[in-house]
Write a structure and sequence with these properties.
Blueprint: E1 10-15, H1 21-30, E2 35-41, H2 47-54, H3 62-68, E3 70-72, H4 75-82, E4 86-89, H5 96-105, E5 109-112, H6 120-133, E6 137-139, H7 149-158, E7 164-172, H8 177-181, H9 195-211, E8 215-223, E9 234-241, E10 246-252, E11 261-268, E12 272-278, E13 281-287, H10 295-306, H11 308-316, H12 318-331, H13 340-359, E14 363-364
The structure holds nicotinamide-adenine-dinucleotide.
Nicotinamide-adenine-dinucleotide is lined by residues 15-21, 41-44, 47, 75, 90-93, 95, 113-114, 140, 142, 183, 198.
Length: 381
């Protein structure tokens, strides 16, 4: 359906009914004044009903939602029958490109889970295809939607923080071997990648957003320490950004699953910013040179701008923020906060890192030519 034809309520279809899709269903049904869920698609015919019953208690008007949606095993059939306004693509990462391309070609806006695709060239192709058709791509880069993050970005853009000095990121997103054994695609070079491509990509995207800059080079190392998988479970490296800032990155799934942590530190001329999510609890500190913490000031500003109920909704489920923003972008002909460009830049950062591992040298970004993640299969871990 074209942009002009979008009515007040956008029809949303979800392709892929696995782990992450529950967050999508909760967000879409929570925005029932703007969105209506029209279809669930999965090649496993039992997956839609399993998904619905798993999140039954979290869906408002559950019976009405179930009655008004259709299920499919073939997404092309769904596109043909329903012409959805928005398609959420929540399939294994190695399938993102083809499905996203088919949805864009069917004139649907897409909410594409991260990572955008498994090569820099195909990510860019999706971005350009959407732009040429006037369609929106919203990426599943959830960290951009955490409370106050948009304000920190605004203040970095306006110069309120002065120049960015350096940044430091820790992503200790522990998973046991059972996680990698849940599905054949997990932890493989061809369809997933390791801790960097799957888990740390969120953090790399956030650093671009908060630094208001793009990475121009990277030097990285990877290892497989404790997890039984093909790709790496641990990555460490340093990026240089176009604004001169350096950013060190630690991304791993080889830590304890009960100790999930994603922490960010950005040092600027006028502020020392820390954002941390530890065991599900967020904390923020925005210190002035005199040591004053401005976190509450930012929180008040965020609530004034967005309302308390929005804050609570995104804190519980950041995908609520992505859908709210995508709907706004479609209806106001503007860009989503986590747009298609953020998608291909994040993939370029990850692939540059991997290429630096393969070549054992610093790599300039954006990558020239094409680099597919499956080339990492040549690397002996
Ligand atoms: N943004 C986030 O916070 C977040 C969190 C988790 C996962 N993800 C991303 O979401 C994607 C899915 O991850 P997951 O953990 O839900 O995976 P999953 O394996 O649990 O679910 C994938 C589902 O897709 C289905 N599927 C496979 N091929 C299909 C096809 N051709 N058509 C329709 N359905 C198909 C599978 O049967 C399965 O039900 C991945 O790209 C992952 O990186 C994002």
């Amino acid at each position: 359906m074209s942009q002009e034809a979008i009515t007040n309520k956008s029809k949303v279809a979800i392709i892929g009914c696995g782990r992450v899709s529950e967050k999508h269903i909760r967000a879409v049904t929570g925005l029932s004044d703007r969105l209506s869920l029209c279809a669930l698609v999965d090649t496993n015919p039992d997956a839609p009903s399993h998904l619905l019953s798993a999140c039954k208690k979290k869906i408002k008007k559950y019976k009405d939602v179930c009655a008004s949606l259709k299920t499919y095993i073939d997404y092309k059939q769904m596109l043909n029958d329903l012409h959805p306004d928005i398609v959420a693509i929540t399939v294994p990462s190695g399938l993102h490109f083809q499905i996203a391309k088919d949805c864009l070609e069917a004139n649907a806006n897409i909410l594409l889970e991260k990572p955008m695709t498994m090569s820099n060239k195909s990510s860019r192709e999706l971005y350009e295809l959407a732009a040429s058709k006037g369609l929106r791509i919203a990426m599943g880069h959830i960290y951009r939607y955490f409370p106050i993050v948009s304000l920190l970005h605004e203040d970095m853009v306006s110069g309120a923080f002065g120049k960015a000095g350096h940044g430091s990121v820790i992503v200790r997103w522990g998973h046991e071997n059972e996680y990698y054994q849940q599905a054949a695609w997990r932890g493989t070079w061809k369809s997933d990648g390791g801790a960097l491509m799957n888990q740390t990509v969120h953090a790399l995207d956030l650093m671009c957003y908060l630094m208001n800059s793009e990475a121009v080079s990277v030097n990285g190392m990877i290892a497989r320490r404790f997890r039984d998988m093909e790709a790496e479970d641990t990555a460490m490296g340093v990026y240089t950004f176009a604004n001169g800032a350096l950013c060190q990155v630690e991304g791993t799934t080889a830590t304890f699953p009960k100790e999930h942590e994603a922490s960010f530190f950005i040092n600027t001329e006028k502020a020392a910013i820390r954002i941390s999510l530890y065991k599900g609890k967020p904390s923020y500190s925005i210190r002035t040179p005199k040591g004053k913490n401005l976190a509450f000031k930012y929180l008040r500003r965020y609530i004034k701008q967005n309302g308390l109920s929005y804050l609570i909704s995104v804190a519980k489920n950041p995908h609520y923020g992505i859908y709210t923003d995508l709907y706004r972008a479609i209806t106001t002909s503007s860009s989503p906060i986590a747009d298609g460009r953020s998608g291909y830049l994040a993939v370029d950062m990850v692939l540059g890192f991997y290429r630096s591992v393969l070549k054992k040298t610093e790599i300039e970004l954006p990558l020239p030519g094409e680099f597919k993640i499956e080339e990492m299969a040549k690397f002996e871990l």
